[in-house]
Amino acid sequence: MGQVIDADGVELWVERRGQGPDVLLISGLGDPAEAWQPQLDGLADRYRLTAFDNRGAGRTPLPEGPLSLARMAGDASALLRALQVPAAHIAGFSGGSFIAQELALRHPGVVRSLVLMSTMARPDPYFRSMTRYWHWMVEHAPDERAMLEAFFLWIYTPRAHADGMVDRFVEEALAFEHPQSVENFQRQLAAFTDHDALDRLGRITAPALVLAGELDLATPPRLGRVVADSIPDAEFEVLPGEAHQPFQEVPDVFNARVDAFWREVESRG
Q: From which residue to which does any coiled coil extend (predicted)?
């Protein structure tokens, strides 16, 4: 059962599960904490996992004023303080990986390690064109179902479209009681599109694992490689046959990989 946590004045909806070393899961564009359900279920026997709704997603409101990655990284840091967690393994997906980068740069003391899934250091022209289309699409799609079906073309593998997984995700999203508004989607999207940490990533000192899906259209492996090359001693791995969201499509593969990484970090003390 989730709960609302006051994180320096922002009421974040939080889901917690399990026992063990602390892990903070940071979602991407529009995703509520439930996006991490395969990890909350699959890793709770080894870790104490915390997932939350970012500003403007799920049950967390989006306050008036500018929205930035720095503010969202501040939310993550404040949440850990409110939960009395001195430091955690941080896993961020897509836009959540951009927040995780800012968290490691601005609040390094709370970061035990970094897993950056479907990430980049700076938007390229393709990404900017894609997100300009998304900004238009969410407002002008005929209905929410049409918007999700179009959006998920960039997110999931052809396999997931063929075997019914995407249809199930669409139905789950339509049934979710706290859908993201058009305005909040666009404001989050603008903040993520403004991400630029390329010239600062060399300052990250936490152990880092960068994962990319071989078939990812939104953040292809070449963008993840730049991130890994920029963070000292970061590991980089491409997941064959996977797209933008493998932690949902092949959770057993994703969970095993991050578990091995966190175990290695823990073994170093």
A: none
Q: Are 211 and 117 in contact (CB under 8 A)?
A: yes
Model pLDDT for residues 134-164, shown as the tens digit of each residue: 999 999 999 999 999 999 999 999 999 999 9
3-state secondary structure of 257: helix
Are the CB atoms for 219 and 127 separated by under 8 Å? yes
Cα 143 from chain centroid? 25
Q: Does 218 have pLDDT greater than 80?
A: yes
Residue type, 23: V
Q: What is the pTM of this model?
A: 0.98
Q: Tokens 């019914």 identify what position? A: 164
CATH number at residue 219: 3.40.50.1820
Distance CA 26, CA 116 (A): 10
What end-to-end distance do the CA atoms of the chain give, in Å?
A: 32
State the Cα–Cα distance between residues 128 and 269, nearest whole angstrom: 40
For CA atoms 148, 217, 130, 61, the dihedral sign is positive
Residue 3 has phi, psi (to 5 degrees) of -150, 160
Q: Which amino acid is at 44?
A: A
* pLDDT of 1: 77
Q: Report the alpha-carbon distance of residue 12 to residue 55 in Å, rounded.
A: 7
Provide the domain limits for residue 119.
Answer: 3-267
Counted domains in the chain: 1
Of 105, 148, 114, the C-alpha closest to 23 is: 114
Which distant-in-sequence residues (6+ apart) come within 8 Å of 205 by Cβ?
108, 232
Q: Choose among 19, 100, 85: nearest CA to 54.
A: 100
Q: What is the pLDDT of residue 65?
A: 82
Tokens 């603008």 belong to 190
